[in-house]
Amino acid sequence: MTILITGATGQLGNAVVRYVLDRTDEPVIVSVRTPEKFTLGGVEVRQGDFEQPETLDFTGADKLLIVSGEAPDTGTRIQQHENAVAKAVEAGVGHIFYTSITDADTSTVGVAVVHKATEEAIRATGIPFTFLRNGMYHENYLGVLSGETVAVSTEDGRVASAARDDFALAAAVALTTEGHENQVYELTGSTAWSFPELAGDRFRDVSDDDLISAGVPALFVDFFKAIREGVFAEVRPDLEKLIGRPSRPIAI
Description:
Elements: E1 3-6, H1 11-23, E2 28-32, E3 44-47, E4 63-66, H2 74-91, E5 95-101, H3 112-125, E6 129-134, H4 139-145, E7 150-152, E8 158-159, H5 164-176, E9 183-187, E10 193-194, H6 195-199, E11 203-205, H7 208-213, H8 218-228, H9 238-243
Parallel strand pairs: 1-2, 1-4, 2-3, 4-5, 5-6, 6-9, 7-11
Antiparallel strand pairs: 8-10
């Protein structure tokens, strides 16, 4: 049962590969834009770029993990993912796994548009799928939380985030065990936290406009707004079930 993982030089993808190698002796292939940046042994390395579909080679993969890519705009990112999905069909992949986002089909978060479109493209293939709908990463907020002043527009909204490493382990478990066909996993941390709770006296409640004026990227402002509105507050059981333990709490 050959497993192929894209984006394996990224932080999430690389961690998934490490966990997969720990869990199985089955063949593992990675598809990366820059092979020289991939340093793990014990796998077959293929060069592949979502923006250049002619370079993507998923032949021989029984299970394919498409790690969502990065692009400067929504349209390009959707096209990248659709290129990968088309190549999966062409290669006869048996099962597609995809790293999505919480409530991708209904979320009001701007980036969810990409994930909803990609999920729809995967469903349309008729190939068995598993959607790993990752919630917020602890790591996204550690820099803000460690500052002398924590100025955000979240008010007392809560975040059921988890460590990137726990999301990677969940993906590896799904890839190396059976019974995940056509499943959608809503992956969150085991507990939810708020910025006022963790920052204490360092917390400053500001507006979205204040953050934009200060040069905070629009993506982060959108996430802060979502936190304020409770989008990422719900604790779901799927991550715990996959990794077999509570997720690690955020620590600053």
